[in-house]
Amino acid sequence: MTSTLITDIGELVTCDGTGEGGIGARSGQAVVVEGTGPGPGTIVWVGPASSAPAADEVLDVGGRCVLPGFVDSHAHLVFDGDRSAEFAARMAGQRYDGGGIGVTVAATRAAGDERLRAALQARVAEMRAQGTTTVEVKSGYGLAVEHEVRALQLAAEVTDEVTYLGAHFVPPEMREDRDGYVDLVVGEMLQACAPHARWIDVFCEPASPHAFTGEESRRVLAAGRDAGLELRVHGNQIDHGPGVRLACEMGAASVDHCTYLSDADVDALVDSAATTTATLLPGVEFSTKSPYPDARALLDAGVSVAIASDCNPGTCFSSSMPFMIALAVREMGMTPSEAVVAATRGGARALRREDIGRIEIGARADLAVLQAPNHLHLAYRAGVPIARALEVAGD
Ligand SMILES: N=CN[C@@H](CCC(=O)O)C(=O)O
Ligand SMILES: [Zn+2]
Predict the structure, then answer these.
(1) 235, β-bridge pairs
(2) How many Å is the maximal CA-CA distance in the chain?
(3) 312, 316, 318, 319: which to mutate for ligand 1, most atoms within 8 A of CB?
């Protein structure tokens, strides 16, 4: 067991629920971490630097800001292929309708295991280099039994938060038999995939011919729950629809996107705030030229809000949680404190995790450090790589 005392912290952002937006930011603090390595240690002490206990090692962070590592609770990282031309077309006015998923499915199916693994590992490393210490990873670009299982197995090599998303898109070979594809997703594919996943997700979007209706989504989620998986939903991304209310009704941990919300959707999110988090993905609005959801109104109404990257080749090929924080502040009406909390403790809540997303005694020592004195710089210095995961001896 090695203990490490982290000292000379400019601002310690605990996200402990106190202070403006729950940021729990304090100066003059120190943190002690204990670990046996490999893997993250545990936070064993937090308090005034003047009364810090002795430790085996001292890590002087030189007046920088220390905060919980970002919890990116929505990402699609197992894929091959390039869709940059689709992005350029959208910037020229084309609307996103989900059809491009088929391009990624073809490329991903054709890729060898080693190629997919290397790409996945590089994406996770890219995230860590920007301060993300937990990421959820979905399947959904295989859409055939062996390809979905392969994606989940690869995802499990890099995270515990693995999500089965067979209901991402109706693949081309099943286009004439949608019902048959849903049968597969809730039948043989689910049986093969459930042992490799914690979560099940569905792209509930009746506005897209490529995605799933409310009733199809209900079937997928119910089958997943029966198979022991917990629920997440892609909802209300392209247009108004049933996704948000379905997620709330079925007790999903998170409903993600929430771009188009009716008053009834907001009411459902308020009523379900103890169970269901609205995970906002502002990089998608940026990359699809869509309207940003009104996070201010959701927070004021009492909705549980997280922000995540949705890193994927179609709607947002950015892995940067600092960029998402900057967008949340600039475009969605969140204060800098609220955005940081939504990217840490909020993401943890969307994953039903209490051991991450906060700096408290007993939490995992998943920490990030900023090349800056305080958290305001995350949005203030948008586009500048000031955040990174903090490596602590004993980890
Ligand atoms: N909308 C569904 N899934 C992804 C996009 C997938 C893609 O276009 O490749 C999303 O979360 O935005
Ligand atoms: Zn997604």
Answers:
(1) 204, 257
(2) 69
(3) 312
Written as one letter, the residue type at 354 is E
In the chain, CATH 3.20.20.140 sits at: 71-350
Atom of ligand 1 nearest to the CA of 284: 12
Please answer whether residues 198 and 161 qualify as being in contact, where contact means their C-beta atoms are separated by less than 8 angstroms. Answer: yes
Are 189 and 171 contacting, i.e. CB atoms less than 8 angstroms apart?
no
Cβ atoms of 224 and 249 within 8 Å: the answer is no
Q: Where in the chain is the domain with CATH 2.30.40.10?
A: 2-68+357-389
pLDDT per residue as tens digits for the range 225-243:
999 999 999 999 999 999 9
Residue 115, phi then psi, degrees to nearest 5: -65, -45
- The verdict on the CB of residue 101 being under 6 Å from ligand 1 is yes
Confidence at residue 393, expressed as pLDDT on a 0 to 100 scale: 67
ipTM score here?
0.98
Spatial contact of 375 and 352, defined as CB atoms under 8 Å apart? no
What is d(CA 310, CA 136) in angstroms, rounded to the nearest whole number?
9
From first CA to last CA, the distance across the chain in angstroms is 10
Q: For atom 2 of ligand 1, which residue has the closest CA? A: 203
Q: Which CATH architecture has domain 2-68+357-389?
A: Roll (2.30)
Q: Which fold has domain 71-350?
A: TIM Barrel (3.20.20)
State yes or no: pLDDT of 40 exceeds 90: no
Per-residue pLDDT of 51-103, as tens digits, reads 999 999 999 999 999 999 999 999 999 999 999 999 999 999 999 999 999 99
Q: Is 104 in the pocket of ligand 1 (CB under 6 A)?
A: yes
pLDDT computed for residue 379 by the predictor: 98
